[in-house]
């Protein structure tokens, strides 16, 4: 994969050799795994019928088909380095999509010092219920890597990370009716006791700007947006409306149950590992969702040579190092992290070939279903009773569903 010391955006997992860097890695892992509370809990599994409902509506490929000009992915799949008109276009598309769902959207603007001078950047933070005491964050970076000369300047970053951003928008649209349904049950006092553990937890999406290094990946030339936001939240006290339900009251970081980071997803046969002991149980929960989907024989999970997206977790292989990415500033501040990144990186990584042709549509479809069901189970959500209409109940969605079978 990437040679040590070569220019790059992320560092691959560190092997267990007695180098200074690997020692540092081990120490960091030890510190993080002791400092982060594990919050292990069992997630209530959706019924097969609920899984089928969630797998069909909205159509899981409609939002991720790059040949459909109105798909989320097509809107994001343009060169979009920070502080460019295209970056603003993509950011505004993300904002408008989430505002259409009536989510609370915050733009976290700042100016970053880069090797090319000062650059304006802005993270997007979208929250279903901004008054909730706690949140689970799903995140990805929406900037694409800057290259100074043509043709590399046309780099699209389909896996890096246009597809993960489109997946997050799909997730918001798929789960919004379920979140509304849960709120309705809570308001009516009908929610089960089993679900009370997550009743205070909302879904938040974070789209980071400035993840990519301009030149060489260093501590100061990389993850500009994540470094800014983690530091800002560390210094922000929880608003009193939330603080009364948190013991002890703390800063904004203390209200994050987990930060789940998606990166380099969309190519065929990803391999995802569990990188952190504190979230190994959560990794297992995602694997369980995939296993049940495979067993369900649903159309997206049938085919020859279907391989799991996940590397089986064992005591020996689960802690093989970590990959530097947007989660690091949060990890260092004690936030529990689940890093959904394929390793080795996609073959097209940081080349002009990371375009629509690098994406494998059946894989994108499966990712969408896995995330929908996993996050629904994480938050104790259930699909609303049949007959409830949602904005995605339009007949055209079925057309895309039929068409998607062609990609199997
Ligand atoms: Zn990259």
UniProtKB/TrEMBL annotation:
<keyword id="KW-0378">Hydrolase</keyword>
<dbReference type="GO" id="GO:0016603">
    <property type="term" value="F:glutaminyl-peptide cyclotransferase activity"/>
</dbReference>
<dbReference type="InterPro" id="IPR037457">
    <property type="entry name" value="M28_QC"/>
</dbReference>
<keyword id="KW-0862">Zinc</keyword>
<dbReference type="InterPro" id="IPR007484">
    <property type="entry name" value="Peptidase_M28"/>
</dbReference>
<dbReference type="GO" id="GO:0008270">
    <property type="term" value="F:zinc ion binding"/>
</dbReference>
<comment type="similarity">
    <text>Belongs to the peptidase M28 family.</text>
</comment>
<dbReference type="GO" id="GO:0006508">
    <property type="term" value="P:proteolysis"/>
</dbReference>
<dbReference type="InterPro" id="IPR040234">
    <property type="entry name" value="QC/QCL"/>
</dbReference>
<keyword id="KW-0732">Signal</keyword>
<feature type="domain" description="Peptidase M28">
    <location>
        <begin position="123"/>
        <end position="371"/>
    </location>
</feature>
<dbReference type="Pfam" id="PF04389">
    <property type="entry name" value="Peptidase_M28"/>
</dbReference>
<keyword id="KW-0808">Transferase</keyword>
<feature type="signal peptide">
    <location>
        <begin position="1"/>
        <end position="37"/>
    </location>
</feature>
<keyword id="KW-0645">Protease</keyword>
<feature type="region of interest" description="Disordered">
    <location>
        <begin position="385"/>
        <end position="408"/>
    </location>
</feature>
<keyword id="KW-0479">Metal-binding</keyword>
<protein>
    <recommendedName>
        <fullName>Peptide hydrolase</fullName>
        <ecNumber>3.4.-.-</ecNumber>
    </recommendedName>
</protein>
<dbReference type="GO" id="GO:0008233">
    <property type="term" value="F:peptidase activity"/>
</dbReference>
<keyword id="KW-0012">Acyltransferase</keyword>
<feature type="compositionally biased region" description="Basic and acidic residues">
    <location>
        <begin position="390"/>
        <end position="408"/>
    </location>
</feature>
């Amino acid at each position: 994969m990437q040679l040590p010391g070569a220019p790059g955006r992320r560092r691959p997992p560190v092997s267990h050799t007695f180098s200074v860097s690997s020692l540092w890695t081990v120490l960091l892992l030890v510190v993080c795994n002791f400092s982060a509370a594990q919050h292990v809990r069992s997630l209530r599994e959706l019924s097969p019928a609920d899984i089928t409902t969630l797998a069909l509506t909205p159509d899981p490929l409609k939002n991720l088909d790059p040949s459909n000009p109105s798909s989320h992915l097509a809107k994001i799949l343009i060169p979009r380095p920070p502080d460019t008109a295209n970056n603003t276009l993509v950011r505004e598309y993300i904002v408008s999509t989430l505002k259409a769902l009536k989510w609370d959207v915050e733009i976290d603007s700042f100016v970053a010092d880069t090797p090319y001078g000062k650059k304006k950047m802005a993270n997007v933070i979208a929250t279903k219920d901004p008054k909730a005491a706690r949140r689970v964050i799903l995140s990805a970076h929406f900037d694409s890597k800057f290259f100074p000369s043509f043709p590399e300047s046309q780099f699209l970053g389909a896996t890096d990370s246009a597809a993960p951003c489109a997946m997050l928008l799909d997730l918001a649209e798929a789960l919004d009716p379920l979140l509304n349904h849960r709120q309705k049950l809570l308001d009516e006092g009908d929610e089960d006791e089993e679900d009370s553990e997550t009743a205070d937890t909302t879904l938040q999406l974070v789209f980071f700007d400035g993840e990519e290094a301009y030149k060489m990946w260093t501590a100061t030339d990389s993850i500009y947006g994540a470094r800014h936001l983690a530091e800002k939240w560390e210094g922000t006290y929880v608003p009193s409306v939330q603080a009364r339900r948190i013991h002890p009251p703390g800063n904004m970081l203390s209200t994050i149950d987990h930060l789940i980071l998606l990166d380099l997803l969309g190519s065929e046969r990803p391999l995802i590992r569990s990188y952190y002991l504190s979230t190994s149980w959560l990794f297992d929960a995602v694997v369980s969702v995939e296993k049940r989907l495979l067993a369900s024989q649903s159309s997206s999970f049938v085919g020859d040579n279907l391989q799991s997206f996940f590397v089986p977790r064992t005591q020996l292989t689960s802690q093989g190092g970590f990959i530097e990415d947007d989660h690091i500033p949060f990890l260092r501040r004690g936030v529990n992290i689940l890093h959904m990144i394929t390793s080795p990186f996609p073959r097209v990584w940081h080349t002009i070939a990371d375009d629509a042709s690098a994406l494998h549509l059946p894989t994108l479809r499966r990712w969408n279903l896995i995330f929908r069901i996993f996050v629904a189970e994480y938050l104790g959500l259930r699909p609303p009773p049949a007959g409830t209409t949602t904005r995605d109940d339009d007949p055209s969605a079925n057309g895309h569903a039929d068409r998607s079978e062609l990609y199997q």
